Amino acid sequence: MGKKILLATEKPFAKIAVAGISEIFRKAGYEVVPLENYTAKEDLLKAVADVDGMIIRSDIVDEAVLAAAVQLKIVVRAGAGYDNIDLKAATAKGVVAMNTPGQNSNAVAELVFALMLYLARGAFSGKSGSELRGKKLGLQAYGAVGRCVTPIAKGFGMDVVAFDPFIPAAAIQKDGVVAVSSLEELYKTCDYVSVHIPKTKETVNSIHSALLATMKKGAMLINTARAEVIDEPSLLKMFAERPDFKYGADVAPACAGEIAEKYAGRFVFTGKKMGAQTEEANVNAGLAAARQIVDFFEKGDKTFQVNK
Ligand code: 3PG
Questions:
Q1: What pTM does this model have?
Q2: What angle do CA 164, 162, 171 make, to 5 degrees?
Q3: Over pLDDT 70: what percentage of the chain?
């Protein structure tokens, strides 16, 4: 029987991705209802009322949304991080939650270098900057994004090291990356640290002074993961005490105003989360999400379920 699928994207996909998603659902005999650029939660609550499935990006799917979605069976986060879905509430309601791991990783990896180069070149001020070649890049976590960052870094002539307690050292080393044995070592020994951890109860505020203060002279921190994994008082302390420190992030921390006021040229923040905002990533993640929904309804496939 035809299903009704909501495409709820406060930050819309590129048109080409929406066309591809629609085509997949059309072939399956499903109806797609787009809800793009919405500003009020009310609009989302209304739109979910009669849908069987939904595709989201960073859109918040909390208890209220799940309660309003009386027919909902599946929500797919077209992307990696699913910290925007209340998994407990979804499980309690019998709703399957999935992500589309790896589909938008290259876009995020490329943004890492956009942020790095901007800061390394003095925020394009014309002042003398520094080069990436010969510098040591530390990857905090070696998942899909870390694996995409590696070859680009090597292309720049950087040495790459990584710390990931969940990935065997051999799997890291086969990419020509040195697996360090502690986070402390990563922060202490690298010229650049790029953060690729998910936002979880354990990781929120987990990057704090004990790590930041040990960073090398002239060190740079790049965060394309989630703003909240950095402890903001520690970040402000680092900016205040270490005039050599630079921070680039997708997206701005809550204390961005204070940083902008006092530390011009030492930071770069995207206005809206844009690591995965490329046509290619939209197509990869969006179409994967649509296929996962069809496979779930037609074949009972739950391969990418995250609330097991
Ligand atoms: C992700 O977790 O996949 C990224 O943060 C992308 O988020 P977005 O879909 O809101 O751009």
A1: 0.97
A2: 70
A3: 100
